[in-house]
Amino acid sequence: MSRSKKLIRNIFIIILLSLFLIAWLGLSFTPLSVYKKVERGNHFGPSQIVHIEDYKNNKFILGRYDRWVSCSNVRRALLFFWAAESVPITIENDNNKALCYTWSNYNPMFKVHGVINDEKIKKVEVTLSNGDIISQTEFYDDLFLLIYDTKIKGDIYFDSIRAYDGESNIVFESEY
Amino acid sequence: MLSPNSEIFIKEVLSYVKFTFDRKDIRKEFEAHISDKIEYYTDMGYELEEAEQRSIQDMGDTKEIGTELNKQHNPVLGWLWRITNAIAILLFMLFCYIIFVSLGLFFSSDLLETVKNSEIVYQRDIDKRIMIDDVEIRLTNVMLEENGDLNIFYRYYTFNRWGNGGSFGYLGTITDDQGNNYTSLSGASHEGIITEGVWTITDFSKDANTVILTYDRYNRKYQLEIPIEVGGAYE
Amino acid sequence: MEIDKGLIGGSTVLLLLSLLEESDLYGYEIIRKLEQRSDNTFKFKEGTLYPVLHKLENKGYVKSYLLKADSGKERKYYKITNNGKKQLAEEKEKWELFSLSVNKVIGGGIHAFS
């Protein structure tokens, strides 16, 4: 076999084995295909995607499935591919509560997400353990998502949450 | 070639060949040829020195030979070939390792042996299946130990790399036919497509005859009953 | 009559492939055979054979392998491939057409003036 033919054969082998490796590692070519696999593998969903937020190398995908609201994130892997970064973090909605939420901390990101049941709520505000306050006034349908960059590993926790109406009256508050 | 003049000739020819990795083979080819020609002349009766001089002369012009030879040993192609060779070999070794480990798990895994740490009161092969999303979990064996540990061995295959392991750590609620509640520990080894594991339920009641697994999460449900016929049936 | 040729040109491929079709040969053998067969008409600058052989191998017309002689000397032999055989047939055809045409031109001229 001439050298150029050997080169072509080598390239072919490399492509084949690379595809195998990618499949083996569970990497996908798009963030959404990984997301679907993560849901299926964790026996949740399939969710309807309400909002996708880009954050650093990650995409946070906010969705709802039946009476649950979930948020999971996927991240870029090996430059071109996508891998799962977390399992779906879910919260079951209780319509009797003005607001249902859950939070999680995976360095270097901290997030809170949930569903707003009371239409009066115009602003959601979360206080963190270090005193910082993050808030959101523009929601995704009736879902909200807040992401915070924790530069110090692991030191940020949830402190309390407050929801205000249009006249800055507190409609809902809770400590976890 | 051993003689200095032949060496000079060959070295000069090789100096035009830019892809150095091919030089060794070319050298050998020329050395063999020149030595054959020298033999030809010495057989004719020439002295060694004269034979060598004639042989080298017969070979031709080093620049002409060298530049033409270089055209056939393209360094770009040569480097690409070497690099892709190395990458292909690396990937192939990785591939073999993955296959080997997967098969190793498939053939030699015997969790039954590793879990035994006390007297076995009861053991039975079972073939119960749980279907959840598109994964089928096969429960293969139950083993009740003297210390009250009830072990349920399972296996499943899936191409989905995400989740699974974690979610199968959660069995659902565990009860028995007497109405007792239990918690469980899980130990498993995953190797890509194949996962073998065991759920261990501690302090299983000596009076119970059936263990019931009830799973209800995110609209996925199953209920499974596994009879544990103890009390007299010692194995 | 001696034609001093460098081996880089024209009908070289035809010559080499037809020798190799008969048997596997190594470089030195090829030179000797060319001389013998052509009654020494073709005397070559011997080193110029190798770029051609390597080119034939790059094109896939021949394949090389190493063989150790009884004397312990290791030589690189060249063997014609199936592609090489096809190419040889093509070269033979081209050569026959060429020599036929040349003869026509030369022969035709003589006839015209006879």
Average of pLDDT of chain A: 87
Q: Work out the oligomeric state of the chains in this entry.
A: heterotrimer
How many extended strands of chain B? 9
Spatial gap, N to C terminus of chain A: 70 Å
Shape of chain B: rod-shaped
Proportion of beta-strand residues of chain A: over 45%
Low-confidence stretches of chain B: none
Enumerate how many helices of chain A there are, as a single number: 2
CATH topology of the largest domain in chain B: Immunoglobulin-like
Unreliable runs of chain A: none
Molecular shape of chain A:
elongated
Radius of gyration of chain A: 21 Å
The CATH class assignment of the domain at 95-176 in chain A is: Mainly Beta
Largest beta sheet: strand ordering of chain B = 1-2-3-7-6
Strand content of chain B: 25-35%
H/E series of chain B: HHHHHHEEEEEEEEE
Kindly report the name of the CATH homologous superfamily of the domain at 95-176 in chain A: Immunoglobulins
Instruction: Please state the structural category of chain B.
Output: alpha+beta
| Main structural class of chain A | alpha+beta
Properties at a glance:
heterotrimer, B: 235 residues, alpha+beta, Immunoglobulin-like, 2 domains, four-stranded antiparallel beta sheet, C: 114 residues, three-stranded antiparallel beta sheet, globular
How is the topology of this model organized?
The complex is a heterotrimer of chains A (176), B (235) and C (114).
Chain A: H1 3-25, H2 31-41, E1 48-55, E2 58-65, E3 68-77, E4 81-84, E5 89-92, E6 99-106, E7 109-116, E8 123-128, E9 133-136, E10 143-149, E11 158-164, E12 170-175
Chain B: H1 4-14, H2 23-44, H3 48-59, H4 62-72, H5 75-108, H6 111-115, E1 120-132, E2 135-145, E3 150-157, E4 173-176, E5 181-182, E6 184-191, E7 194-201, E8 210-217, E9 220-227
Antiparallel strand pairs in B: 1-2, 2-3, 3-7, 4-5, 4-8, 6-7, 8-9
Helix pairs in contact in B: 1-2, 1-4, 2-3
Chain C: E1 3-5, H1 12-22, E2 25-26, H2 27-37, E3 42-44, H3 49-59, E4 62-68, E5 74-80, H4 82-113
Helix pairs in contact in C: 1-4
Description:
The complex is a heterotrimer of chains A (176), B (235) and C (114). Chain A is α+β, with helices and mostly antiparallel strands and 176 residues long. Chain A has a domain of 82 residues: Immunoglobulins (Immunoglobulin-like, Sandwich). Chain A has two helices and twelve strands; from the N terminus they run ααββββββββββββ. The mean pLDDT of chain A is 87. A five-stranded antiparallel β-sheet of chain B has the order 1-2-3-7-6. Chain B has a four-stranded antiparallel β-sheet with strand order 5-4-8-9, with no helix packed on it. In chain B, α1 runs antiparallel to α2, α1 packs across α4 and α2 packs across α3. Chain B is rod-shaped, with a radius of gyration of 37 Å. The mean pLDDT of chain B is 84. Chain C is of the alpha+beta class. Chain C has a single domain, classed as Winged helix-like DNA-binding domain superfamily/Winged helix DNA-binding domain (Arc Repressor Mutant, subunit A). Chain C has four helices and five strands; from the N terminus they run βαβαβαββα. In chain C, the strands form two sheets. Chain C has a three-stranded antiparallel β-sheet with strand order 2-5-4. In chain C, strands 1-3 form a two-stranded parallel sheet. In chain C, β4 and β5 form a beta hairpin. Chain C is globular. In chain C, 30% of the residues are buried. Chains A and B meet through α1 and α2 of A and α5 of B.
